[in-house]
Amino acid sequence: MAHVISDACISCGSCEGECPVSAISSGDSQYVIDADSCIDCGACAGVCPTGAISEA
């Protein structure tokens, strides 16, 4: 199951660089994770300063 980014995202970009498959990109108001590309490794969740990333 892919990870998701909640509204707590502050668009800092920390997660984008941690994703080994480049599944994270900047959306309209916050970062988003492409569920089809996400390999559910959790690297992004480990670096999120607001805890905005969790498993779907």
What brief labels describe this structure?
18% helix; two-stranded antiparallel ribbon; 21% strand; alpha+beta; globular; 56 residues
Any overview of this molecule?
This protein has 56 residues and is an alpha+beta fold. Helix content is 18%, strand content 21%. The chain contains two helices and four strands. The chain has a two-stranded antiparallel ribbon with strand order 1-4. A two-stranded antiparallel ribbon has the order 2-3. The protein is globular and about 25 Å long. The model has no long low-confidence stretch (mean pLDDT 97).
Question: What class, by secondary structure content?
Answer: alpha+beta
* Order of H and E elements: EHEEHE
Q: Which descriptor suits the 3D outline?
A: globular
Q: Work out the radius of gyration.
A: 10 Å
Helix content: 10-25%
Explain the layout of strands and helices:
Elements: E1 3-5, H1 14-18, E2 24-26, E3 31-33, H2 43-47, E4 53-55
Antiparallel strand pairs: 1-4, 2-3
What's this model, at a glance?
With 56 residues, this protein is an alpha+beta fold. It has two helices and four strands.
